[in-house]
Amino acid sequence: xxxxxxxxxxxxxAALAREFARHDCAVLLTARRGSQLRDIAAQxxxxxxxxxCDVTDPAQVAHLARxxxxxxxxxxxxxxxxxxxxxxxxxxxxxLPDLDAMLNSNLRSAFxxxxxxxxxxxxxxxxxxxxxxxIAALRGLPGNSLYCAAKAGLLGYAxxxxxxxxxAGVRVLIxxxxxxxxxxxxxxxVPPERLMAADSVARAVVANALLPADCxxxxxxxxxxxxxx
Length: 229
Description:
seven-stranded parallel beta sheet, 6 helices, single chain
């Protein structure tokens, strides 16, 4: 199984890379920070490759698609749209640049990566797109209006893709995790034990992504055992 993971340099992306590698998958890791990617790849073993890429940039994503084709001999079996960013601020303080930043990181990136690989997946009539959305796509979180909007947009895009790609044999999976211990929570004051471990979330995502091709975990929600914060 060949897997491309975006946003793989830290947090959940790094945990996903390690978990897929643990299942003997070949992984191609991408993010903007190449040095951090190499550190994560070293943890994944000999079947890990890295390609630094800003997945909000169409030209860089096109280059990523060509590189993946050379590495894997075709499009990946699994494409994990994990790249994203979080920004919290009161709605009255949100600006247009803030909105652009949230949409670019969380929605534009997934659109560009998916669009780059879809022709190959459809032509092959197999493969899976995995979208890492958020509980924020399902409920409004005070102080997170722009993040909620971006993740809700990602959820809508992925749901529509699923319906469109069913006849082509391409699966679409959507993970909706709640609060997960990643660098975004640094300095928050929230006890780490109140959050889900990134490795725990990665195990659930990979287990669903590696289901046999005749079934699909269309949407699955993951929350800390004590519930949302």
